[in-house]
Amino acid sequence: MQKQWIYPDWPAPSRVRALSTTRINGVSRGVYSGLNLGSHVGDNAVDVAQNRTLLREELPGDPHWLKQTHGSTVAYADNLAEVVEADAAIARRINTVCAVMTADCLPVLLCADDASVVGAAHAGWRGLAAGVLEQVVDLMEYTPGKLMAWFGPAIGPAAFEVGADVRDIFVAEHPQSATAFKNKGGDKWLADIYALARLRLQRIGVTRIYGGEWCTYEDSQRFYSYRRDGVTGRMATLIWIADEN
Q: Would you say residue 181 lies in a domain?
């Protein structure tokens, strides 16, 4: 039986807690069937609220949800009193839960070796190109070599088709990004979003990177996928610093 939650397999400090949801269980119906956590995708609001209640049982506090825009704005979750437009969040206080929602885009979690700061980023190709990962690392104000990252479920390299314009954006800034694209014929390319994110993190000194083995597009039983279904639900990837006691 498939598990409802995915826990990062990374050597993070014991005080750092994190999980990524799947669509397993939950009360949403129809195209949203399962544990849809997105309140902005057309699902029944009562069902979404119940799904969020199920998730809340696994957390020390309410998640700080963001209004994601595929950009590079980072929010300070410790100070959030309302939903803000941002594609990433960082926290330094105990039990402040950073959260990002995805349905093909790449969720990235980061933490410091001493558990003093954590971060979560929504990294689709637009966000990656805009520098959302670089911005998160910069605002965490911690030596990049002493940070580690984990990639949650995203669309895999055999399913993520993009145009030459997308490839050109990445290669123009970072020529090595060409290794993350495979030509499918003409102007069509298959992009490895995991590889693109890995290259960007490594370039700024974050070299301990884990996860990245899923394909949301190919696994309809476990994951929502916007590319596959169009109208669909959203999953969440969350991280927080736990109390020592």
A: no
